[in-house]
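Quick one: sequence plus flavin mononucleotide SMILES, need structure tokens.
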Amino acid sequence: MDLGEVRKKAKEQLQPYCRVCPVCDGRVCAGEVPGMGGAGTGAAFRANIDALARRRFNLKTLHGVKKTDTTIQLWGQSLSMPIMAAPITGVSYNMGGKMSEDEFTDVWVSGALQAGSLGMIGDGADPVMYDGGLKAIRTAGGKGVPFIKPRGQAEIIKRIRQAEESGAIAVGMDVDGAGLITMALKGQPVEPKTPAELKEVIAATRLPFIVKGIMTAAEAEIAADCGAAAIVVSNHGGRVLDFTPGAAEVLHQIADRVKGKLTILADGGVRSGADVLKLLALGADAVLVGRPLVVGAFGGGKEGVALLLNKMKNELVSAMLLTGTADVKNVSYDILA
Ligand SMILES: Cc1cc2nc3c(=O)[nH]c(=O)nc-3n(C[C@H](O)[C@H](O)[C@H](O)COP(=O)(O)O)c2cc1C
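Reply:
Sure thing.
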């Protein structure tokens, strides 16, 4: 299986929801939520892409870095690369449903695992999403991370218990899902969380807790103070609020404030190993990838997800050699021009 075949099959399977564009930049699919696009004008999706494209590297080849280390340790796991599969749900209404939610989450989690990485799963109004994801994590021996929507406190804690029972190595909440009116319309309201409420949720489990959807240094600090093990600097792929900045625009400022206090993850618009290295230089410890791996999943199943992750890892190695970066655990801001 090669990338060309994967993309061709994905295009057939995903049409008209995703056109599998040469560059996945949110232009053609602007406003397609449900679908694979960004909300409204699509500006927040494009901001992720543009913010990464604006950063440039200082090309360096006269140095002694001849070997690179792309491994990281996270939540007791050794990962082959600092790149994980982001939580994605809603196969039926976002991707056309040629795969079931169960099949998709299984391919997602097992494909990431095959590449030596981790897959994350999400939560939605239809219980098939969270439950199916947990099933995939259980099958993977717990090697996966579920994300719960910011529901009422009791509903969140109930799902944390289910995550614990599945053996998941960590659990998180996509707090940026707080404005999803669709959840309320389906009788499952979501809401912003006060620091006290966040603290209560985090204190309810001994699993490392990840707060996803942080876009300001002040909120990163709140997450750290509430006991979060990690944050994901993310605008949810531009799907929740039009006109937010791109993750790469705000990441450095956030990392400046909380680096060392918790693990910093980031996502949005990562399309290559070079993009991964840029986010690491801006302060991330690891990154998540969404849409490109959906193409892998629909075009090649578990192998397709692993293929795309490994492609990014190879590109990351190349970019590391050409910037004099020996280890992903120690990436200098100065590699950026
Ligand atoms: C179709 C789709 C569904 C998503 N569902 C979820 C979800 O259920 N929970 C969540 O935390 N993020 C969700 N996300 C956001 C992703 O986890 C991630 O933040 C985003 O896709 C990263 O941007 P990228 O796709 O440009 O890589 C979804 C994204 C897409 C495209």
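The first helix runs from residue 3 to 14. The mean pLDDT is 97.
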